[in-house]
């Protein structure tokens, strides 16, 4: 997705001044990464709930299917 | 504006996860079941061999949820939430790219960001560490495998972002086309070096001791003390089908995100740029 040319009549405006939206960006990224972690990683390689396997076993098939390493 | 984009991205992500799950439920679940049946049969054969050799029996994995729950509810919830997570990350990438990566229309940019997500989050790591069905994977190496996979994902995402940045930097000097080709080539070389350096799963410490020098953890045929095959290796067709469907499901997921988000963002941005009452449309 590098800058493949697609000429348009007008430039796309900068919608998000990063300085203004840092908080919004950061909180979204952190929440999304936490979700990604619990779907894909937790209770496999590392675990925040110790030896519990409920999340791992529940999303087991999704994990295999989405390409994450699993047991 | 950010919140409106985010809401749309999350909803589109959930829809994309749902579609990918429907595909997976129809095409991949039979492969997963075949793999689990293979594993069960292999474990039984192994247990019989161990018993004959006087070795202690291995421990079985936990059975917290039934296969029906795992295949229908768990996989669905897992894939929808995965869609939500990547949908949110997609929106962040999209919002940051808007207006910063050349004269791209909002629709074209949505498709490109989705294509980038598919590549960096899934397909490039897949090339080194492909998706595996149950029965493939040594439980003792899961820590290493998890770490290596996430490292691959991290490298490909960081390199892709760097390549986009590089493409922008080179644009004035070499023109759009050449800058894009150069940035793409840099990405391929950089990620190729990482792939060459990282170990193959079969070469992890735990595996070399157990099963000798193989590149993957795919189970080989099980032989008894006399060298006769008592249980076959993992069926190659099942493995191929599983991986093909895994790629197809991710393709469905990211394509849905790109194609559905594109017109939504287009409308939102048009409404904003051509607004009559600025206050009313701002969020």
Assess the beta-strand content of chain B as a share of residues.
Answer: under 5%
- Could you report the average pLDDT of chain A, rounded to the nearest whole number? 78
Sheet of most strands of chain B: 2 strands, antiparallel
Structural class of chain A: mainly alpha
Q: Low-confidence spans of chain B: pLDDT under 50, at least 5 residues? A: 276-283
Fraction of residues in β-strands of chain A: under 5%
How many domains of chain B?
2
Radius of gyration of chain B, taken over Cα atoms and rounded to an integer in Å: 23 Å
Average pLDDT of chain B, rounded to a whole number, is: 90
Q: Which chains share the greatest interface?
A: A-B, 50 and 91 residues
Order of helices and strands of chain A: HHH
SSE succession of chain B: HHHHHEEHH
Give the gist of this structure:
The complex is a heterodimer of chains A (71) and B (283). Chain A is mainly α and 71 residues long.
Architecture overview:
The complex is a heterodimer of chains A (71) and B (283). Chain A has a domain at 19-66. Helices cover 49% and strands 0% of the residues of chain A. Chain A has helices at 18-40, 54-58, 60-66. Chain A has 3 helices and no strands. Chain A has 71 residues and is an all-alpha fold. With 283 residues, chain B is mainly α. Chain B has 2 domains: 1-56 and 68-136 and 235-283, no CATH class; 137-217, no CATH class. Chain B is built from 7 helices and 2 strands. In chain B, helix 1 (2-53) runs antiparallel to helix 2 (67-97), helix 1 packs antiparallel against helix 6 and helix 2 packs across helix 3. The longest helix of chain B has 56 residues, at 142-197. The chains are: A mainly alpha (71), B mainly alpha (283).
């Amino acid at each position: 997705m590098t800058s493949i040319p697609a000429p348009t009549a007008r430039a796309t405006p900068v919608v998000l001044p990063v300085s203004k939206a840092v908080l919004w960006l950061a909180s979204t990224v952190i929440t999304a990464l936490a979700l990604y972690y619990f779907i894909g990683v937790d209770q496999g390689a590392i675990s925040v709930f110790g030896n519990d396997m409920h999340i791992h076993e529940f999303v087991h098939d999704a994990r295999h299917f989405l390409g994450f390493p699993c047991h | 504006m950010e919140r409106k984009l985010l809401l749309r991205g999350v909803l589109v992500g959930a829809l994309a996860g749902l579609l990918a799950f429907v595909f997976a439920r129809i095409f991949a679940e039979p492969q997963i079941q075949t793999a689990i049946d293979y594993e069960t049969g292999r474990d039984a054969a192994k247990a019989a061999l161990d018993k004959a050799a006087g070795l202690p029996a291995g421990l079985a994995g936990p059975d917290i949820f039934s296969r029906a729950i795992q295949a229908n509810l768990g996989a669905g919830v897992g894939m929808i939430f995965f869609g939500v997570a990547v949908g949110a990350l997609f929106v962040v990438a999209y919002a940051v790219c808007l207006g910063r990566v050349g004269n791209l229309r909002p629709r074209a940019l949505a498709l490109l960001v989705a294509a980038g997500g598919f590549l960096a989050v899934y397909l490039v790591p897949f090339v080194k560490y492909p998706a595996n069905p149950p029965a493939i994977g040594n439980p003792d190496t899961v820590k290493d495998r998890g770490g290596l996979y996430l490292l691959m994902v991290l490298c490909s995402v960081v390199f892709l972002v760097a390549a986009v940045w590089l493409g922008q930097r080179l644009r004035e000097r070499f023109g759009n086309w050449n800058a894009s080709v150069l940035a793409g080539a840099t990405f391929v070389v950089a990620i190729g070096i990482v792939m060459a350096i990282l170990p193959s799963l079969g070469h992890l410490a735990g595996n070399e001791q157990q099963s000798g020098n193989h590149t993957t953890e795919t189970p080989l045929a099980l032989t008894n003390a006399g060298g006769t095959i008592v249980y076959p290796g993992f069926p190659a067709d099942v493995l191929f089908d599983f991986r093909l469907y895994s790629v197809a499901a991710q393709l469905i997921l990211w394509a849905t995100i790109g194609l559905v988000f594109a017109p939504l963002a287009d409308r939102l941005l048009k409404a904003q740029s051509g607004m009559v009452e600025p206050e009313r449309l701002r969020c």
